[in-house]
Amino acid sequence: MTYATLDDLRSQLGKGPGPSDAYTQKMLHPIPDAPVVDRVTLILDRCQGKRVLDFGATGSLSLKIREVCAAYHGVDREAASDVVPFDLDDVHEPALPRFDVDIIICGELLEHLSNPGWFLARLCEQYGHIATIITVPNAFAKQGHLRDGIENVNIDHVCWYSFRTLKTLLARAGYTGYWFGWYHGQPLTAEGLIVVLE
Amino acid sequence: MNISHFMRKEKSGLAFTTLELVKAEEQLGHGVCLREPTDTEGFPGPILYGQNGWTPDVECIHSQMPMTSYANRIPKFLWMHGEPLSSIGNGVSMKAIVDMAPKVDAFIAMRKEEFAVWSSIKRTYLVSKGIDLERFHPVDVPTHVDNDHSSKLSGEPAVLYVEHWRGQRNPLYLCVAMQQVWLRYPKARLHLYNCTNPKMFETFRALSQHNKWWPFLRTINGPVKDTEINRLYNRADIVVSCLYPLYARSIEAFGAGKALIAPGYTDPEYPWHCDLEPESMAKAIMDCWDDYGRLDYRQWAERKHNVLDTVKQTIDIYGRYL
């Protein structure tokens, strides 16, 4: 491959022929520097006093959001108090439930969906103007997800996301600007990724 | 002038020197192209850096060239990076040099000590051995703090060996020399870096324990990152080479403003000389420390080892063949 700078070449001396330009462009993607944040603190700070729409409205995070927000609207498979039942994977349902809110939370949701791109495309179309926080487990988490022939994965998950795959999925859905960080651990190998779209 | 360089993408002093030459040529306004000498068929290999699509005015060979260069009539120069004796010792290099000699216009050597050898094979031009004085430069280093790897190395003087350990090239004589230095300067310390061979490491650890070198031998470390080497030089007082009869990239120490003790470094204007034997090396280290301020080592680098000067000299040589 042709290196852009002599320093780039110098750093690769002795490392074999290296990949082709075509391979590099298609397959190798630098990950930008990003901070490690406390996922719950960041979400609760952003939800404080706000009208919140929470997709995947179950679990301890949803309970905490209810405590700090001004108004809570949830969407999940099962109905509950302030939670609308809705199948986010249903490709025959053209619109997501509509609420007038200030912020949207999709915490550990995408990896459960059979059609995440379909969901995100509708989310961007309907709520693209509203701040949205998405968190997913990191495919390259340090603890590893495979050991001794056993996969360590939630039985309801259908995929693992990395920075790059999530970025591509969001871009296909129509999102452009984003801020991202890591949660629980160190950059690159943290337990999860957190993305703020606004 | 458009200059093409053929160089294998190996991690070696040859490659570091070539990259510095290319950078300096660009800085001086010349067009450059750096590429692997051959692909699997013997044709020019992939371009590593620089321009494509033009015919070079000259070709510079750094150990190998493509078959197409044998007959293209472009002036070409074989850079003599290696030592003559090692070139024979490795069983490959000298034969390759002799094979290529009829196909190149001249050799370019960077050390006058080897000029006679290369001249016996082909017309040889001598240029100064330069280094990138932007890459190797003085930086502020805080005084020594235990376990702080950004602070100065321990010792007064802090003596550093950071060459490529390889077979007979090793710091044995330096360690023995440091026994004498330590007797006169009890605060003197020795730091050995870039030991990449486990057997070599075990050998020197055994020597250190058996010979009770621990009062002064404080470090036997592995490879140093390329990005850290300038700082490491700056953390030392005196850098010592154990190469002989020549010298290599240890002159980078001058760029960092540090003294170099090298048996193969024979510039008559330089104050500290020694032979490759412990008594002589110990004396040179102590003489240097006694009168450390006698020379501004950074200025020495700027005067004697600026790669920009090297390139200016080579451009003059290339011009004679256009």
Description:
The complex is a heterodimer of chains A (198) and B (322). By secondary structure, chain A is α/β, with parallel strands linked by helices. Chain A has helices spanning 6-11, 21-27, 39-47, 60-68, 116-127, 163-173, and strands spanning 36-37, 51-55, 71-76, 83-85, 103-107, 131-137, 146-147, 150-151, 179-183, 192-197. In chain A, the strands form two sheets. Chain A has an eight-stranded mixed β-sheet with strand order 1-9-10-6-5-2-3-4, covered by helices on one side. In chain A, helix 5 (116-127) links the parallel strand 5 (103-107) and strand 6. In chain A, helix 5 (116-127) packs across helix 6. Chain A is elongated and about 60 Å long. Chain B is of the alpha/beta class and 322 residues long. Chain B has helices spanning 13-27, 84-89, 93-100, 115-119, 172-184, 198-210, 229-235, 252-255, 278-290, 297-304, 307-319; strands at 2-7, 31-35, 47-50, 58-62, 76-80, 106-109, 124-126, 158-161, 189-192, 217-220, 238-240, 259-261. In chain B, helix 1 crosses helix 11 and helix 5 crosses helix 9. The longest helix of chain B has 15 residues, at 13-27. The radius of gyration of chain B is 21 Å and the shape is elongated. The interface between A and B is medium-sized, with 15 and 18 residues.
